[in-house]
Amino acid sequence: MAKKKESLKGLGAKYGSTLRKRYTRVYVTLKSKRECPSCSSKRFRRKASGIWRCFRCGYTVAGGAYDVSQEARQ
Ligand SMILES: [Zn+2]
Asked: Is the pLDDT of residue 8 over 80?
């Protein structure tokens, strides 16, 4: 069973553990696979901050900066 990563490489020992954990959560959320609500393809990704687009059918939707839903994340 794969152990879930607690931190990402790339930030090193910089910025402190709290910020690194927060960055990791945002990064994982951002890079996680999503399903297009229109064609159910997995090529639904963030095009720009707040803009989510399906790269298969071109469906574009406004959403949050780091997640397609705009739920407040702490
Ligand atoms: Zn689509």
From this structure: no
Q: Is 2 within the bounds of a domain?
A: no
Residue 7 resides in a domain = no
Cα of 22 vs centre of ligand 1, distance in Å, is 29
Of residues 9 and 25, the one with the higher pLDDT is 25
CATH of the domain at 56: 2.20.25.30
Q: Are 23 and 6 in contact (CB under 8 A)?
A: no
The tally of domains found in the chain comes to 1
Distance from the CA of 33 to the center of ligand 1, in angstroms? 13
Report how far residue 55's alpha carbon sits from residue 4's, in angstroms, rounded to the nearest whole number: 28
